[in-house]
Amino acid sequence: MKTARLRIAIQKSGRLNNDSMDLLYKCGLKLRPTQSSLFCHVENLPIDILFIRDDDIPTLVMDGVCDIGIVGENVLLEQSLGYLEAGNKKDYIVAKQLGFSRCRLSIAIAQDKPYVNSASLNGLRIATSYPNIVRNYLSNNNVNAEIMMISGSVEITPGLDMADAICDLVSTGRTLEEHNLKEVEQVLKSQAVLIKSTLALNPQKEETFDLLLRRIESVLKAQESKYIMFHAPKTSLPSIKELLPGCESPTIMQLEGSDDKVAVHVVSSEGVFWVTLEKLKHAGASSILVLPIEKMLN
Ligand code: ATP
Ligand code: MG
Fold it and tell me: Of 67, 259, 263, 280, which is most buried by a Cβ count within 10 Å?
């Protein structure tokens, strides 16, 4: 009998595509080269990838055309609010937050406009590609403002006197600055998430999904973790341990030719910053090495 293949929806090109593909490669998926730019067959697992616009990903997963998908929380929330307003129920679960494509959805106004708090938005016209999220935000904050739906180049509308404010995605804030706008309210913080249809999958697909999710969790954990090695006097070990939170029982080895010094090997699950290394050195550690971890299975 033919194995049922899990179908994943991924953004075809854009800000989500690279990191989504990178995650799948790190999970060991080998893609078969294909003529089609829309569809890809995974050689070593029963998985097919469908490449589409990010706006279509929530709908295709909710309708069960794709079993899972990777999409930004901003697009997901906008579409599911639309779905709920149309009287449909939410038909997906967020299986995992993936930590990439981080951005925020914020309201911005002209730099020279006075602003006190969200009440200052009363009576304004706000241009956005996220009408449902903005409507929700305005009603939660008792603000009476007009929403103007525009699908792109939202940031140019105040300069053209088409709108008084905008609500758009921000990551560094450079685009806002270039258009003489200032960020005044953060409406949503967003990152990429793995979503799954709530429709029952057949047992083979469910098994493939469980395997993929376990691998994704391992990859994310390994990305945050570092392997740290250093030498230290035995007497410094208590103070050194306090500097390494998120590290489980270190391996401590005697150094040949030295009675009072040991080598310490430890996995840190929290990433390691320069400040921590400097503190370790100050506490007596030397020959400090920090190595990336490629894979991790607990
Ligand atoms: P598509 O053609 O698929 O509809 P798009 O133009 O709507 O693409 P992109 O600009 O590629 O979308 O952004 C995709 C998603 O990446 C956004 O919905 C958001 O979740 C996230 N994102 C947006 N801007 C940034 C940014 N500056 N840095 C990181 N992630 C971002
Ligand atoms: Mg889009």
Answer: 67
| Residue closest by Cα to atom 3 of ligand 1 | 53
Provide the terminal-to-terminal Cα distance of the chain, rounded to the nearest Å: 34
* Ligand 1 atom closest to residue 11's alpha carbon, by position in its atom list: 3
pLDDT values of the chain reduced to their tens digit, one per residue, 298 residues: 678 999 999 999 999 999 999 999 999 999 987 777 899 999 999 999 999 999 999 999 998 999 999 999 999 999 999 988 888 887 899 999 999 999 999 999 999 999 999 999 999 999 999 999 999 999 999 999 999 999 999 999 999 999 999 999 999 999 999 999 999 999 999 999 999 999 889 999 999 999 999 999 999 999 888 999 999 999 999 999 888 866 678 899 999 888 899 999 999 887 788 888 999 999 999 999 999 998 888 7
Ligand 1 pocket residue status of 103, Cβ below 6 Å: yes
Among 12, 75, 101, name the best residue to mutate to test ligand 1's pocket (greatest count of ligand atoms within 8 A of Cβ).
101
The DSSP bridge pattern shows strands 6-11 and 68-72 to be parallel
Closest residue by CA, ligand 1 atom 12: 14
**Structural tokens at position 49:** 């990838």
pTM as predicted: 0.89
